[in-house]
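Problem 12. The chain below contains 191 residues. Write out its predicted structure in token notation.
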Amino acid sequence: MLQGDGGRRVFVPMCGKTLDLKWLSDQGHGVVGNEVVEMACRQFFDDHNLQYTTQRIEGMDGTVFKATDIDLQLFNCDFYKLTSDVIGTFDCIWDRGAMAAANPEDREKYAQVIVPLLKPTGAYLLDLFELENTVFAGPPHGITDARVDELFASKCNIEVLMRADRLGDWQRSWGLESFWEVVRLLTPKQT
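Solution.
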């Protein structure tokens, strides 16, 4: 997905101030993140000693934080209002917890926002968890293979890259007896 000499345009939804943003940038990719909390955007740039500018997002309520020395931007706005007209399309989407953090009742809306942001030749890394939602309400919220298929299979090919048992003391303290991380690679179906 990110092999080669960099130069891909990567989107990180609901990113907070994740270290992934800087790591992806350090690999030579253009990085665009989205975060609704303004303080997290400012802290990300401050934590990495990055100079930045801000400007209002044209046509919607929000602010773009742009690094001055590297190709990295954070869109401080409501994820569910993003469109390709606002942020463009991407070679890669790096979702390590955004969909897992989103409210389960918003998943269809989430999929409707995210899929159009992916270029026809793009790749979408989707890292989710399988867990007993009746025992632990989340976040992270569990999601089954069947639900992922319902949300994405009509528009994307879905490949499971990894399924790993992540049950530890922390998850047991939530009352869980199982906690699986499932990493999928989604690619747009060619029409």
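Discussion. The radius of gyration is 17 Å. Students who got a different answer should revisit the alignment rule from Section 12.3.
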